Structures are given as C-alpha cells and as structure tokens.
C-alpha cells in the first residue's frame, strides 16, 4: 500500500509545529506505528514547551489502533477530566 499526501500536508513539520504549542498535551504513540514512528512521536513530545504534557506508548497499537486500544482510555479520560477541572 502506498500513501500519497498532498504537498501542503507533506510540508508540515510536526516537531516545529509542536514547539509553538505550550498548552496541555497528550501524545499517544503506538509502538507498532509506521505512519508516525515512535521516535518521531517522541521528538514531537520533546519539542512541546508546555509543562502539562504526557506521553503514552501503547503496546501493540499501530497508527489507527491507538485510540481503540484498552490502554488508551484511562489516560485519555484522565487527561480530559483534568482539562475540564481546570477550565
């Protein structure tokens, strides 16, 4: 399978974009992700300047399986609950 991205989407530097966002962040990484491999996701996480950031490496998940993986729901719900309680 070949995935072709539009030029505008392919030109996005996620690390650089993340470096400009200081808000709360939850970075979800599937350890089997080949679209956004874990080392790239970690670079995005490391570039986030905010103090309220979390990283979750989801075992056995690929790019499209992170949100449906059982390990994700508790972290996601806790993140959203924290946002709701502070805003």
How would you describe what is shown here?
The longest helix is centred in the C-terminal third of the chain and has 15 residues, at 72-86. Strand 1, helix 3 and strand 2 (53-58) form a beta-alpha-beta unit. The protein is built from four helices and two strands. It is α+β, with helices and mostly antiparallel strands and 87 residues long.
Supply database-style keywords:
87 residues, 4 helices, 14% strand
Number of separate strands: 2
Structural class: alpha+beta
Strand proportion: 5-15%
Task: Give the spatial strand order of the biggest sheet.
Answer: 1-2
What's the overall average pLDDT, rounded? 90
Radius of gyration: 14 Å
- Please tell me what the overall shape is: globular
Helix and strand sequence: HHEHEH
The end-to-end span amounts to 43 Å
Helix content: 25-40%
Low-confidence stretches: none
- Tally of helical segments: 4
Q: Major sheet, described briefly?
A: 2 strands, parallel
Overview in brief:
By secondary structure, this protein is α+β, with helices and mostly antiparallel strands.
Sequence-ordered SSE layout with sheet pairings:
Blueprint: H1 7-10, H2 14-18, E1 25-30, H3 38-47, E2 53-58, H4 72-86
Parallel strand pairs: 1-2
